[in-house]
Specification:
The protein has 467 residues and is of the alpha+beta class. 40% of the residues lie in helices and 19% in strands. α7 runs parallel beside α13 and α8 crosses α10. The chain starts with 13 loop residues before the first helix and ends in a 5-residue tail after the last helix. Bound molecules: adenosine-5'-diphosphate.
């Protein structure tokens, strides 16, 4: 039968009226409808099975958040402001989340789900709640991530070796080359550096996406920290004939004090990676004769950092995409400039992991400003946290002193080493930080997460709470 040619009948047949019910009965996704207060009116068999609420009759009339019990996908209890179900009921807004896990009522089994809540556009303001088990999708994603991570890790080592030998070839003290060979090897070294950076970025992306690198928070004075990181770029900027400026002022104070101190509670290694990326980009995308300004200031309860350049700028079309994975603006200016398109994605991941926000403003052809806003702590709070840090450091020192000294293992052969050239330090400038620990090994999980709250048996909640 050609359904497009068949006439629409005015009165539905019994088959047509039953079709939605059949779909809802056999579909694998959980489907629930609620009234505007979140009270369940309908629940399909898949939702009954997944929530383990017993039967549709038992669930109808209960608050949806008691039947669809959720926690964060990392196993953390959600307070009301974080719970998408509660928020969707209040805001009457569509919400989608893949960051939650369903807790089955009877077995307390955790199932990662894709949750969607849609308000129905009519006066009754019903909501449709759907959820789907994404265990398999996450497993497949995890396998892919694992593969990329292992491959990047394994390939980094030979690339570093190639880079090391190319450095030896190009060093007049260790090798003699004619001009043509020098040109070829210089190009080969640029390509191996690009490859090394790509593998490092890929490794960081997979680890951050996978939650294997978590911020290791510590109190920090931000003006001093950002200045010390930025100072490491004075030489590179000078070589590129770009003027480098650093400043700090307080937006929240009426006098706009200069050289203030502002405090935050951050991961210092994350902060270095973020600044390295933003300042390297500023240098990369600014032609000779341009300027870069790095500024740190307090802005109410935030610390605001900006990296401004007078470079090639970003078109408004590109501006909305630059924080996406692998996105590179493609124009005559950027085509010549190497890059992986992963740097700003990593910046965003790291900033957000520290409770911050990053965004960019730009005028094409005139320059760009990248802003990083982070939660600010008071000087009292900073001092209190520093006392804890010092106590922990003392404890660690005492434990290390009381540990028996271990002799170095004589039987193990020393790994073969290739001499790598040391960075030259400009007068007054600081050496760029060495590769940070978090980039190669996961830092210990943060202690900031609230403890996992054990969920009560669902039936306890279902008893007596029917509205
Ligand atoms: P890449 O390795 O390509 O620099 P990023 O993720 O760091 O990757 O940046 C993404 C894109 O954003 C770049 O390819 C470039 O087009 C644009 N971009 C980033 N920083 C700047 C800047 N300071 N000035 C102009 N364009 C920039």
């Amino acid at each position: 039968m050609n359904i497009f040619n068949s006439k629409k009948s005015k009165t539905p047949t019994s088959n047509q009226t039953a079709l939605p019910e059949i779909v809802l009965k056999y579909i694998h996704d959980g489907v629930i409808t609620t009234d505007k207060n979140g009270v369940i009116q309908f629940i399909n068999p898949a939702a009954v099975n997944m929530t383990e609420c017993g039967s549709a009759d038992k669930a109808v009339g209960f608050d949806c958040s008691l039947v669809v019990k959720i926690e964060s996908k990392e196993g953390r209890a959600l307070d009301e402001s974080e719970n998408p179900l509660i928020q969707a009921m209040r805001a009457n807004q569509p919400i989608e989340s893949m960051q939650v896990a369903l807790i089955a009522l009877q077995s307390e089994k955790r199932i990662p789900i894709a949750l969607s809540i849609l308000p129905v556009e009519n006066a009754s303001q019903n909501r449709i709640v759907t959820f789907r088990d994404i265990t398999k999708e996450l497993e497949e994603e995890g396998e892919q991530t694992e593969f990329i991570s292992t491959a990047s890790h394994e390939m980094r080592t030979p690339v570093a070796t190639i880079d090391g030998y190319l450095s030896l070839c190009l060093n007049p003290q260790t090798a003699t080359l004619d001009e043509r060979a020098r040109g070829y090897l210089t190009a080969a070294q640029a390509a191996s550096k690009h490859l090394g950076k790509l593998f490092q970025d890929l490794l960081d992306v997979t680890k951050l996406d996978d939650g294997k690198i978590r911020p290791h928070f510590e109190p920090a004075e931000m003006v001093g920290l950002i200045k010390s990181i930025s100072d490491g770029y004075i030489e590179q900027a000078t070589e590129a004939k770009i003027t480098f400026n650093f400043g700090s002022n307080d937006l929240s104070s009426s006098e706009h004090r200069m050289n203030q101190v502002v405090y935050s509670f951050i991961d210092v290694n994350f902060m270095r990676e973020i600044m390295d990326n933003l300042v390297e980009n500023a240098i990369k995308y600014t032609p000779e004769g341009g300027s870069i300004y790095v500024n740190v200031r307090g802005d109410g309860d935030r610390v605001l950092i900006n990296v401004t350049d007078t470079g090639i700028g970003i078109s408004s079309d590109d501006l909305s995409h630059i924080f996406q994975k692998f996105y590179r603006a493609d124009n005559s200016d950027t085509r010549e400039i190497g890059g992986t398109g992963l740097g700003l994605y990593l910046v965003k991941q790291r900033v957000e992991a520290m409770g911050g926000r990053v965004w960019a403003e730009s005028a094409f052809g005139e320059g760009s400003t990248f802003f990083v806003s982070l939660p600010r702590i008071s000087s009292d709070e900073y001092e209190k946290r520093m006392i804890v840090v010092r106590q922990l450091q003392n404890q660690e020192r005492m434990m290390a002193a009381s540990r028996p000294q271990t002799k170095p293992a004589a039987s193990q052969p020393a790994p073969a080493q290739i001499a790598t050239p040391q960075p030259v330090v400009a007068q007054g400038a600081q050496v760029k930080s060495p590769p940070v620990q978090s980039a190669v090994s996961p830092s210990p999980p943060t202690t900031n997460n609230p403890p996992v709250v054990k969920q009560n048996n669902i039936n306890n909640n279902l008893n007596g709470e029917k509205r």
